[in-house]
Amino acid sequence: MVRQTIQIFARVKPTKKPTFFSFQVYTVDNEEHSGGSLEFVIPRDLADGFINNKRESYRFRFLKVFDQATNQEEIFETIAKPVADNVLAGYNGTIFAYGQTGSGKTFTITGGAERYSDRGIIPRTLSYLSMVYTTQISYLEIYNEVGYDLLDPRHEASNLEDLPSVTIMEDPDQNIHLKNLSLQASANEEEALNLLFLGDTNRMIAETPMNQASTRSHCIFTIHLCGREPGSATLHRSKLHLVDLAGSERVGKSGVGGQILTEAKYINLSLHYLEQVITALSEKNRSHIPYRNSMMTSVLRDSLGGNCMTTMIATVSSEKTNIDESISTCRFAQRVALIKNEALVNEELDPALLIVRLKKEIQCLKEELAMVTGEQRTDELKEQVKLFLDDPDPDTTLDLGPDMRKIHHCFLLLKVHLSYSLAFLSLPVLSCFLSWMYYFCSASSSGPELSIEQQEAFEIFRNDHGDRLTLEDNKAILKQRFAEAKALGEQVNQARNRVSKSFSLPPLPPATHISSASGVMESQPNPQSDTVEETLRSQIEEEKKNYKSTFGRLKGLKTEIEHLQHLLQRSKIKLKRDFQDWWSQEATRLQYWHHALHYGIPYYMLHIPFRALSSTTMSSTSIPLTGDHQTDADILAFIRARQSLLTRTGISSSIHAGQKRGKV
Ligand code: ADP
Ligand code: MG
């Protein structure tokens, strides 16, 4: 068992423009023996009428304070990697980010939506873990005390209520179970990242400008690991929660009303309950901890004062206007640091595996006996190696007992096998991947189909949209990475061909010979071995090294391409959604126009000029209306939308001026 207090770190968000004040209000000191400290220094307000040069200073201790210049890689290496290592060792882990809205919680946990290097803790941890163990993933959003499953694969969510709602159940042993929260299996990094992308897209789509759910909800991304050491019958089951909490700001300060106030109450209430739990835990001899008061504290029960190694990242903003909230975030962190958790390795014995292991042991002993009595033959060893290689179970073992001669011989057999099989390592996977990527790239983003008119307006809207530059940049980077991947792919193929060619030369006789009478191997000098062979061997070794390093680089590139692909896809979805919102707003506005027409606004006022970019046959001087209410509304919506777009791009004013001159 490991007893450990919750580890606390602080991260200061970069200010957009460094100002005199942002420089002044805080200092970071990581040189201290026992960790780092963050100090806020506020000059006393002189407006009180008397001169007071005293400064108020607030100093908080953390394990380490990450200043504005810290990048995502450093955050992962220092904070998340040690937690991930513990999770691999079978402990439960939690990392949660706490701070006011806009202080960088989502940026730290999930990452920025623009650059590959802005990947946050979740995608980096998935890359780190997925090579080792099989995983299952869940992604829960808690909004107004209701849980939602973000990994609903149906892609139909247009608001949060469309997602399956998750409820808490407690078994007789008081263990918490989440009903309706799906656990999705992911066999590799790519599948895990796809799940993260699905959850984030659902989270984004479910959010409207009136309902900024992402800042007012708690999101818990959980990775469940299960694995065992090769040959061991002990299973390790552990889970890692990566938590992006709602903004911690107080309601009174934000001055909100109506629906938003109700939400804020809920959020403040759940953060208030979190504080209550934390206060109760930090007090000695408290028997009752009020976990059940809110869904979030119930779900994170183990992470707070239970069987878990927990880390908190306090995200603070350095602007003077946010200093109250930053101080309150740090105060909260100091209380959190008092909580002691007791983490256990989550092990269980797999009886089926135990039987298999014991059977293998018996077999081993029998073989040893046979060896001693001279029954063992080298072909049996060959057969054993063959069975071992053919077994699809990645955890299978080659049990040879303690006899070093047998072990040496099997190693030799494996070496010969490895050299030959490398020559046949092909890259169909790579080419499949590249062609899939090309297909994926050219495919249009998901969402409802647009009519021809909408498509035309969408083109202009897209050129005008604020995210266009990021989108274009990412497209350009993606294109570049494709080209790099292609070039690397060719290099890998060439290296592979060179290795194959070397192997197509007559095979070298084995360097050892086996005495069939005793089943014992002896090393003997090979008469045919000469310098030519030696050169050939070293060439092959060199090519193999080459092949391995290029292949490694190619793999890294693949991860980057996938990530960029996700960013692009997300931007596309966002763009389409913004367009749909704008389009429906325009349509509503034109309904009013139509009514105005009925109430006497002259018809000529609706003669709207537009740019001749349409393939339709509309005249640029008059629009005949059909008299049908719905059709006319649609026609007018389109004209109005076009007009509005042209005005935004500055084209209409010039056309309009030209037309006026023509009429005069
Ligand atoms: P929160 O989730 O706490 O409300 P966000 O993570 O959404 O805040 O951050 C708000 C904005 O600030 C985002 O645009 C984000 O990209 C940016 N941001 C936050 N932290 C950093 C950072 N360390 N470096 C660069 N940009 C950041
Ligand atoms: Mg956020």
List the helices and strands and how they pair.
Blueprint: E1 2-5, E2 7-13, H1 20-24, E3 26-29, E4 36-43, E5 55-62, E6 64-66, H2 72-88, E7 93-98, H3 105-109, H4 121-130, E8 134-143, E9 146-149, E10 165-170, E11 176-179, E12 184-186, H5 189-205, H6 213-216, E13 218-227, E14 234-244, H7 251-254, H8 258-282, H9 295-299, E15 309-317, H10 323-336, E16 340-343, E17 347-349, H11 351-372, H12 378-390, H13 404-423, H14 428-442, H15 452-464, H16 468-504, E18 512-515, E19 520-523, H17 531-598, H18 629-649, H19 651-663
Helix pairs in contact: 2-4, 4-5, 5-17, 15-17, 15-18, 16-17, 17-18
The structure holds adenosine-5'-diphosphate and magnesium ion.
Magnesium ion (MG) binds next to helix 3 and helix 6.
Family: Belongs to the TRAFAC class myosin-kinesin ATPase superfamily. Kinesin family.
Organism: Electrophorus electricus (Electric eel)
Domain Kinesin motor: 5-339
